[in-house]
């Protein structure tokens, strides 16, 4: 006989849900709807259900884990909001007893309950005129990260790096009432969704109240903090939510363990300076050419930062239209078994096709297309491709902490960096 664990909710009880077990989902729902005890209009439906291997054991695990969220100790009623719902589901799906999610023909979407801590439009400085003005100010090159790109990168890191850590998303990582891509940052949504599974200690997100308001979150900066089931939104007087704000820097330097966000490309140099100085762990998105750009080359040369796992070529603009921009994840977490290293081609110099190797006017070797001359001991120039693919993790280092511009027959070519094989002692 199959075993199920479910989350059900009554239409007139948006702040509560029932988490229970049964061998027959259809029968249990009929039982609920025939004995609601409130009114015939309070119809129940399933928000989530899963087939499990041991429903009683999992039910007890939930009672033990979320004892503080039960309305009464002897009843299966739990407090509900979107964040709590994600926590419940995440816990169930990460259990050893979870087998598979049950799909319904007409699933009910979770009711959206506005948290008391969310500021009103007046408190956020939003008016109808504000929204109209915003529409006139936003430029087409303003964009934000897609959830699937965040999930693709962050899923590559071991879950243990997040345990008991404070994550700070400090570049307009708004969290709205609906908590979807229309009013919330993808980074914020990711950590809200996986807060329990990752065993985070705390999540802190800031909204930047600047000229461009991607999430209609208002012109006032705010700080969102989630710790356990507690969620608080603060709007300090005079705070605009910028990463360089004194309060933001205090959070970064005194509370944060890991930074995850997509800082504005136009201010990347300022942002990296603050971030590297903090000595915090990070996983961020930035321009793909940073590793051969003057402001950033020293960070790569001194092993303060390196490429993450994935590149990000597509973003969404305020109209939710995909736009191209050359980005990549960067981090200071160890990258084990980097898949891209396989793209590097370590071969003797004479085996590199002529089209991918040449000498500039000064006699410096230029190498393209992920080729690396493994029998060449002098400095040679490479592009972003080799750096992003991990050549600095394969016995090579940057020898000039500045851009290198080769000249071919007197004509200046695109920027590169000089690397050299590390000499063995």
From TrEMBL:
Keyword terms, alphabetized: Methyltransferase, Transferase
Molecular function GO terms recorded: methyltransferase activity
Residue stretches making up the Bacteriophage T5 Orf172 DNA-binding domain: 3-68
Entry's Gene Ontology BP terms: methylation
Pfam family, one: T5orf172
Entry-linked InterPro entries: EcoRI-like_methylase, Phage_T5_Orf172_DNA-bd
Keyword Methyltransferase: yes
UniProt keyword NADP, yes or no: no
Highest rank taxon of the organism: Bacteria
Name of the protein in its database record: DNA methyltransferase
